[in-house]
Predict the structure.
Amino acid sequence: MADKRTKVNIKQLQKMKEDRTPVAWITSYDLPFAYVAEQAGVEMILVGDSGGMVQLGYKTTNPVTMDEMITMAKTARRGAPDTFLIGDMPQGSYEVGKKEAIINSLRFVKEADCDAVKLEGGKRMAPKVKAISD
């Protein structure tokens, strides 16, 4: 059995970027894959909304719900307790307003023990990103 490792944090990731140290990311939606990723030394795991297609059989990511994302993130966290975990905010979970963005990002942190959240949309989403980070 490998020695217990220490999860990377934001400051370490920033330093790795500054030093041009490679960082290994992978996408996982379940316990077995997340476990293997952690054992391999991957620094970060993204629980992507693509899990709706890969795990749940949807044709697109559009139908993926927050509840489904939370379930996948919780499962990945159980497989990789010492890996930086990012929850991907599904469509409709943050676009409506700052309040919804905050509530749903907090769900990832509180219910799935995520270390960060990911959302898409460029500059038009900046106010929601600021609300979440504040």
Remarks:
- The radius of gyration is 15 Å.
- The chain has six helices and four strands.
